[in-house]
Amino acid sequence: MVTGDHNPPHIHDDYSGDEAVFDILTGTMAAGKIPTRAKKMVQLWISMHHDELVADWNFAVKNQPIFKITPLK
Q: Is-contact 30 21, C-beta < 8 A?
């Protein structure tokens, strides 16, 4: 289970100078603004790597090394 004070589990996305924060459990954009096409790509990537993101989140909140996840190209 996800632990730590930095919840909910999320990622930060930077797209051409615009920034957004996405909840990795739901894929929803929690803050910021990026173009719709970029938003859909990030949400697709989150759905493809959900288990890896949750695992990395759990490592990160325990100050353990995280694993690199393949980016969208």
A: yes
- Indicate the pTM of the whole model: 0.86
pLDDT in tens, 9-68: 999 999 999 999 999 999 999 999 999 999 999 999 999 999 999 999 999 999 999 999
Q: Answer yes or no: are the C-beta atoms of 45 and 71 closer than 8 Å.
A: yes
Of the candidates 36, 7, 5, 41, the residue with the CA atom closest to the CA atom of residue 24 = 7
* Residue the block writes with tokens 């695992």: 55
Handedness of CA 12, 22, 10, 47 (dihedral sign): negative
Give residue for tokens 């615009």: 18
Number of domains in the chain: 1
Question: Which structural domain range is residue 26 located in?
Answer: 10-61
